[in-house]
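job 3f2a | input accepted
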Amino acid sequence: IDRSNTDPAYAGIVDAATQHLYYKVMAWVFFLSYGVGIPLFAVIVIGILRLRSLEKARLYFSFLIRGFNRRYWFWEMVIMIRKLGIVFVVVFFHRKQDRAIQTYLAMWWIQANLVAHLVLHPYRFPAVHTMEALSLGSIAISLNLILLFDDQFQNTNEALDDS
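job 3f2a | predicted structure (163 res):
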């Protein structure tokens, strides 16, 4: 950025670019600390407690692990990472020209989570498993319908047909 230019409009652009960079750096810091750090910390703490005493770990963290099969005690952290992935796509792919990429990434992320849910069957109760599968399925269907009905994607397909 050339700071020698004295044009006030240019100074406003420089200030906006600096401010944007600041917020982008802060977004990455919070993304890494909250989105990666907290689930990782929870898995490590619960894992250490499980090695010492499984009953103590169940007592302290029953609000996190009670509804899941014992083999998938960590599934609440997977859910947090799923939500974080969607937030990541929405925050970092927010420009109008990124809408197609945003939709595809969100669709693939949700479908990958749906497949993992259906294959691993992490919930202890069948009704909860069914509700989670239907919820993820409805989100996946909605994202696919966006591709079908959004004008931006229709115009892209017409441009491809003309060439």
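job 3f2a | The CA atoms of residues 47 and 132 lie 25 Å apart.
job 3f2a | closed
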